[in-house]
Design goal:
Radius of gyration: 32 Å
Strand order of the largest sheet: 13-14-12-15-18-11-19
Largest sheet: 7 strands, parallel
Number of strands: 34
Bound molecules: adenosine-5'-diphosphate, zinc ion
Mean pLDDT: 86
Number of helices: 28
Shape: globular
Low-confidence stretches: 1-20
Length: 839
């Protein structure tokens, strides 16, 4: 995003309670459905006194009940004269007396909703731990009068009587089920009649139990005079219990039973005699096992680190907003600086938040954080269990935890008094949430810091072009760590021109001789290696030699990838999979070829070539389970694995001192993508993975195989020359009008009817042109999206470029309003502001 400092939000103001002492009459409610407006509800007297912004409110919407969020309270609705008071529905139930959504989170979700055009209610829902809100169910029950009249009505109104009996048989029943069992079309009218006459009543009940704090039985020793105790007749088991509790005072019951080796009956006897007491205590579902926490370590900072820390400390102590780019080569000690800055924030009584780009990286950092800061640390990411997430969220909400580490959704942590935000590897595309609600965690965190007067630290060895540009124009402050800790030299990088390999052997080969030799040498020296390839699976395409057809996904415009271990061909976009064919599906030809090597095949080839090297693979197929990924990394760290083969997941964050060789088999596929960020992404990937070599005492080497040896992304990455790359890339961006010189909005139309889609695309284009009278934007399209078909739907897109965000929104919002009036559903148009990859 080119300008995250534009804060549109007025939520902080609107979240304030009305000034009058009387209870508010109405609530403005954001509901978690795909609509871009809020709704006003009448607050019944029983609710209105306790209603506060941020609390959940059960409200009727269309014919359903939904859990919405109060975003403002209103005394009257004169500001919305179009709403006739009679049309306003009444809220059903208030779920929280203490609002679940803090004012800060309410404000930042409001900003996201405005900025990215995502429905506010959906954003709030995404900001809360999952499973916290059960959906509500409407049930019909009999009143006392209803019971009495069941028989009397049988003669005069058999239909009503029958319904009463059905309800009575069930005790409680949903209207839908009742209608089915009564077999009548008129049931809902009959229910209304019965309700009006006071014979039945509607109640609301959560459909399933929401996630709550877990409790366990615990035991404590009551104050008992030791002398009196000694005088009592006690069995040896009872003495062991008292012995244990004398040390601990209170402990979980199950621990006591195990440690004192006693049965529950001994405990019960002591309880009856008033010596011990059993009670319920909340237990934390801790995502980190105690044995996984390493010993705490803190280094004496180098001069460069000290000076960086001093710069950060200044605004932190003053309590003002500031964003720093911490631009430090891999291994320059950025993590150490993060820890110190957090310590300062804590000392100042403030909280800190650290975002990392991938779940795979959270365990690495969170263990170190736990070692240094103990229970003050809470972990936020989506692969925790619902219970763990709820507990971590609750600990932050209560102020017990003041350091949050997480992936992008960590930006919604309900921390109070935020002082410091750290965004590690700020250039990573994973900060972008692709599914609704769309937002960029990095940019959101910067805005949140601004709203809460906190300091932001953007860390990277390869900053995104936008961020570096912001530092260049002094919007961010540029801090640098130019040397590796201990002055470890950078790995020497060598580019291998694969065209020469083809010339030499007369056909393409996967591995150059140079790479094979280095692998063997490295193994002989008992050092480790990392082999990178940006394509998972076994082969990227299945090709028929007879007719030349490739096997396509039936739902998407891509070829299917062969996964040999599963003997299937899989779509990497929609996950469609089918058995690998033995004959061509189009011509029945039997000469099926698999082309384009993936990680699975590379692993297999290397295993065949080097039987003594212990090889493990890391990619999305092998790391579906958090623990298995961690185990592979741990085994590699412990030297039980000699070589890791994998995708970009290998490139980040890990610190393995014995790795001296990094081989890049190919990143060419990334270079030729029709995406304006293709060069930037490739540069980052090569630089990052090269940084994995030579982190210990042995110098490292990097080999990059490519068919594009002269490409500037490859050359500058091999030379670890960020400045050189930036200069060349920024010229390209300027010349072709791409960010950071313009802001982008991508409008994607999708649907199953191609003809309709095309005409909607043209309508949208006309509307955009009409809104663009002052020629503030440049509009491209409609054109088929690069992935013209996905998950069974056709896709057409329009790209809007503007100099300022205000112009962009103005033109897009007006055009969207215009096409909505033509009857084009907003649901079939995806608006993406600041899209991460634009092809
Ligand atoms: P980065 O995050 O920039 O890649 P790290 O913070 O991981 O770098 O530091 C690289 C290595 O140097 C780590 O093993 C770390 O423990 C060590 N290190 C960091 N700071 C110091 C220091 N001041 N003195 C000694 N070792 C340090
Ligand atoms: Zn598909």
């Amino acid at each position: 995003m080119s300008d995250p400092s534009v804060v549109h939000s007025t939520a902080a103001a609107s979240a304030a309670e009305p000034t009058s002492a009387a209870s508010p009459k109405y609530a403005e409610v954001a509901v978690p459905v795909h609509v871009s407006r809020t709704f006003t509800y009448l607050l019944p007297r029983a609710i209105s006194h306790d209603a506060k912004p941020g609390a959940r409110l059960v409200v009727p919407l269309h014919s359903k009940l939904v859990t919405g969020y109060i975003v403002a309270l209103l005394d009257d609705i004169q500001s919305e004269p179009t709403l006739a008071e009679t049309a306003i529905k009444e809220a059903v139930e208030l779920l929280d007396r203490v609002p679940l959504v803090t004012p800060e989170v309410l404000a930042i979700t409001r900003w996201i909703s405005d900025y990215y055009g995502s429905p506010w209610g959906e954003v709030i829902k995404a900001a809360l731990p999952p499973g916290i809100s059960a959906t509500m169910e409407r049930l019909i029950v009999l009143t006392g009068q209803g019971y009495d009249q069941m028989e009397t009505l049988a003669a005069s109104a058999p239909a009503l009587s029958n319904i009463l009996r059905l309800i009575g048989d069930h005790g409680e029943i949903s209207p839908e089920r009742l209608a089915k069992e009564a077999g009548k079309t008129q049931t809902s009218r009959l229910i209304r009649e019965l309700e009006r006459d006071g014979l039945v009543q509607t109640i609301h009940r959560p459909r399933q139990l929401p996630i709550r704090t877990r409790h366990q039985r615990a035991i404590r020793l009551l104050e008992v005079d030791q002398a009196a105790l000694a005088a009592q007749k006690l069995t040896s088991a009872q003495r062991r219990i008292i012995g244990e509790l004398n040390n601990e005072r209170t402990m979980p019951l199950k621990n006591l039973l195990a440690e004192a080796n006693v049965s529950l009956s001994s405990v019960n006897t002591l309880e009856k005699r008033g010596i011990v007491e059993l009670f319920e205590e909340p237990v934390r579902r801790d995502p980190i096992l105690a044995r996984e926490i390493p010993p705490a370590e803190e280094h004496t900072l180098t001069e460069a680190q000290t000076s960086v820390l001093e710069s950060i400390e200044k605004p932190l102590r003053e309590g003002i907003y500031r964003t720093f780019l911490l631009h430090g080569v891999t291994g320059s000690g950025k993590t150490e600086v993060y820890m110190r800055a957090m310590r300062v924030a804590l000392q100042l009584g403030r909280s800190a938040m650290m975002l990392v780009p991938e779940i795979a990286l959270t365990p690495v950092f969170s263990r170190r954080l736990r070692a240094n800061f103990g229970d003050l640390v809470a972990i936020f990411h989506s692969s925790l269990s619902k219970g763990e997430r709820f507990d971590e969220w609750t600990r932050v909400r209560s102020g017990e935890a003041r350091i949050v580490i997480g992936t992008r959704s960590g930006v919604f942590a309900p921390v109070r008094n935020l002082g410091l935000v750290i965004i590690d590897e700020e250039h990573e595309a994973t900060y972008r949430q692709q599914d609704s609600p769309v937002y960029n965690g990095r940019d959101t965190a910067i805005v949140r810091a601004q709203q809460e007067s906190a300091v932001v630290l953007l860390g990277s060895a390869t900053p995104s072009l936008e961020t570096f540009h912001n530092a260049h124009i002094k919007k961010y402050e540029h801090l640098q760590l130019t040397d590796r800790i201990g002055n470890r030299p950078f790995a020497r990088a060598r580019i291998i021109d694969m065209r020469k390999v083809v010339a030499q052997y007369g056909r393409p080969r996967v591995f150059s001789d140079a790479l094979l030799e280095r692998i063997a040498e490295t193994h002989q020296k008992k050092e480790q290696s990392i082999i990178l390839l940006n394509r998972r699976g076994y082969s990227s395409a299945v090709l028929c030699r007879t007719c030349g057809e490739t096997v396509q996904c039936p739902n998407c415009d891509v070829t299917l990838t062969y996964h040999r271990s599963m003997r299937t061909i899989v779509c990497h976009y929609c996950n469609h999979n089918q058995p690998a064919p033995s004959r061509c599906p189009s011509c029945e030809g039997e000469y099926i070829y698999y082309i384009g090597e993936g990680t699975e095949q590379i692993e297999e080839m290397l295993k065949a070539q080097f039987p003594t090297i212990r090889i493990a693979r890391i990619d999305r197929d092998t790391t579906a389970h958090r623990r298995s990924f961690e185990k592979t990394l741990a085994d590699f760290g412990a030297g039980q694995i000699d070589m890791l083969v994998g995708t970009q997941m290998l490139a980040k964050g890990h610190d393995f001192p014995n790795v001296t060789l990094v081989g890049v088999v190919s990143v060419d596929a990334g270079l030729v993508l029709p995406d304006f960020r293709a060069a930037e992404k490739t540069f980052q990937l090569i630089t990052q993975v090269a940084g994995r070599a030579g982190r210990g005492n042995q110098p490292g080497q990097v080999l990059i195989q490519t068919y594009h040896p002269e490409h500037y992304a490859v050359r500058h990455a091999a030379a670890q020359d960020y400045a050189g790359f930036y200069e060349q890339e920024i010229r390209y961006r300027k010349h072709h009008s791409y960010p950071p010189f313009v802001v982008l909005g991508l409008l994607l139309l999708h649907g199953t009817d191609l003809g309709r889609l095309k005409s909607e695309g043209n309508d949208l284009r006309k509307a955009l042109d009409a809104a663009n009278t002052e020629r503030l934007c440049r509009i491209l399209g409609p054109a088929p999206a690069p992935l013209a078909r996905l998950k069974g739907e056709h896709r057409y897109q329009l790209l809007v470029k503007a100099r300022t965000r205000k112009h962009l929104r103005q033109v897009i919002d007006n055009a969207l309003a215009e096409v909505a009036s033509l009857g084009i559903s907003r649901r079939s148009i995806n608006l993406e502001i600041d899209p991460v990859s634009v092809m």
